[in-house]
């Protein structure tokens, strides 16, 4: 028994007229008659009383029609529930993001035009981010990481320069540039672990410089406080400094080695992405493009 047979039967029962039902269904009358005959043969009873060209629903037909209407209604409700679920799920965008204060502004600007969208934002490790991109648990990743997976697409958003940050009044505060290997006896305030700490350690290795790490702190506010107190110097990204308006902290560009990181947007091209996730993906690309233009 096919769903189409049930739908055709319901229409014929409604009109009790093959020709009118065929016209309503936009099919040939002989095809409709054959469909009804096959259904009756499968059920083992006639569903209509026939008298010449006239047909009338009989007692078997009335019983079957009641059940068919219930079945079709249940199926239609199921379709609506699934459709509602799809639309509900697709108002959510799930992100894995790096630690940067620019993310809230990015999300706020997108919601100005899309107020119904909700975000689920995570800050997983590099390994966990890759796992969740592969599984489809996250739609997009904004980070300084690339992923060795042919299914993961990546587009560069910007080149984020890393600068040295010292307190106002520091002996280096008036220097436009510094070399890392010239920072003898300067105590550093660094993160204890993570992607940014690994990046800073790489810069030290490139400069063949062993830093004096006085503080290992993961809270950005504590790092700023320690620097402002004159207890050490640290690294900040220029992306972070865009939102950090503090005249007591002085950024200094690093001449050697080149200190920067590539920030990119990643997604799994083999996974389904909702229209709103695709819209947000392009928005992110455009948003960072404007940042780069304003910087230039």
UniProtKB/TrEMBL annotation:
Presence of the UniProt keyword Transcription regulation in the record: yes
One cellular component (GO) term of this entry: cytosol
Limits of the HTH lysR-type domain: 1-58
Domain of life: Bacteria
Alphabetized GO MF terms: DNA binding; DNA-binding transcription factor activity
This protein's UniProt keywords: DNA-binding, Transcription, Transcription regulation
Pfam families referenced in this protein's UniProt entry, alphabetically: HTH_1 (PF00126), LysR_substrate (PF03466)
Similarity-based family: Belongs to the LysR transcriptional regulatory family.
PANTHER family: HTH-TYPE TRANSCRIPTIONAL REGULATOR BSDA, HTH-TYPE TRANSCRIPTIONAL REGULATOR YBHD
Protein name: LysR family transcriptional regulator
Species for this entry: Terrilactibacillus tamarindi
